[in-house]
Amino acid sequence: MTKAPPLRDDCFVMPRGVVWTPVDEALNRLRMSLESVLAVSEVSVTNAFGRILAHDVRAIVNHPPFMNSAVDGYGFALDTLPKGDELTLPLLDGRSAAGQPYNGKVPAGYAIRILTGAAVPLGVDTIILEEDVNDTKTHIHFHSGLKQNANTRPIGEDILSGSIILHKGRKLRPADLGVLASGGIGRVKVYKKLRVAVLTTGDELVEVGSIAQNSQIVDANRPMLLAQIKKWGYVPIDLGIVVDNTILIEEALNHAAKSADIILTTGGVSAGDEDHISKLLMQKADLQTWRIALKPGRPLALAFWDNVPVLGLPGNPVAAMVCTHVFAYPACSFLSGQGWLEPFSVRVVAAFSKNKKIGRQEYLRARLNTDGHAEVFKSEGSGRISGLSWSDGLVVLSHDAQKVNQGDIVKYIPFDI
Fold first, then answer.
1. pTM of the full predicted structure?
2. CATH topology (fold) of 346-414
3. Topology of domain 21-38+192-335, per CATH?
4. Is 268 within 8 Å of 201 (Cβ atoms)?
5. Beta carbons of 121 and 106 less than 8 angstroms apart
């Protein structure tokens, strides 16, 4: 008689005879297998926010383009000043203002009124603050002690013509557009926006807004993941829900491979009778790895379908979201032209205690309290989607056994990246 296996009664225990891939190894495999092949286009700087540079950008003008005043005050040539502690200079008729420069030359021994941002006239190399001067309208009186070039901004102090001001792969932020404009750049070459397709599978799923009947549930994963993709600045492609039918799922993957640069699927990546995604990827795709040692989300497929990367995410919403941050974020960063970027993390104080077993890297839903310490959600269940809304990020615990006490330092990944 065949003996039954011992009862373990723990869904998180690693199954016997299964080789589990550590997170770092899976990430490295994914990184080594990806290629960025996005097309390049040219856009105006004013329309370049959020786009990714396809080339290094060199300034074509200096910034500032001329020597100008950093203050409202009076300008003169320092080495022409008379000797003494208290000085008096005759004030030249006229002034230099921003956009209205003084076009003459200031004679030695004279001063001229000059305003912030104004071009420094010939004959001037130093500017004194108006607050440090007594002005009689014909003369100025002040104390000596200024250094030459005080309160001036030299040509190219910020940006030199010909210098690289922004590098290839940079995702352009609002301030970057100002840098480009100041460097004389009107148009830049950028990568085409990355297209990310999302497909959910399962006979039990119904669309958002529908009333779930009997054993049905509303598809929460797709709107969540599509929104995350949009937040990262990519183009989301909604492939809808596909029932547990191998032929229909294959058709959906074929369609996705023609319209997307990377495909995210949720559900069907375990080893059950209706886990068609994993079966298809093993039979007809270049499967890179499967069953990754992380919690939540151990069944995870990394594969290629018609040369398009596929991340087969778990169906449970928490596991799907965690795996999206851990795997999809760096993969999409690389494919979009930014290079391999893993989620930003900081070290924070733990406001919780936990004994973690060896074997998997764990990601705990967490948020920072008013002291900046990390609290964790009351449950680790991967179906508890409310914990994702409650949290602001993830606490990461290593693959090894780890005992965390309140006050210990832990790794924290904020969701707002």
1. 0.87
2. Beta-clip (2.40.340)
3. Molybdenum Cofactor Biosythetic Enzyme; Chain A (3.40.980)
4. yes
5. yes
Q: Per-10-residue mean pLDDT for the chain, 417 residues long?
A: 53 58 91 90 97 98 97 96 93 96 96 97 97 93 95 97 98 98 98 96 85 85 96 96 89 95 82 64 77 84 90 90 95 96 96 93 96 94 89 95 95 91
Q: Are strands 139-143 and 86-96 parallel, antiparallel or unpaired?
A: antiparallel
Are 115 and 78 in contact, with CB atoms under 8 Å apart?
A: no
Give CA–CA dist 154/156, Å, rounded.
Answer: 6
- From the list 228, 247, 246, 244, the residue with the least C-alpha distance to 236 is 228
Query: Measured between alpha carbons, how far is 363 from 295 in angstroms, rounded to an integer?
Result: 6
Query: For residue 160, what are the contacts with CB-CB under 8 A and spacing of at least 6?
Result: 59, 62
Q: At what angle do helices 246-259 and 276-284 cross, to 10 degrees?
A: 70
Q: Return the structure tokens found at 130.
A: 């108006």
Count of CB atoms within 10 A of residue 259's CB?
13
SS3 285: coil
CATH for 68-153, options being 3.40.50.1000, 3.40.47.10, 3.40.630.30, 2.170.190.11 = 2.170.190.11
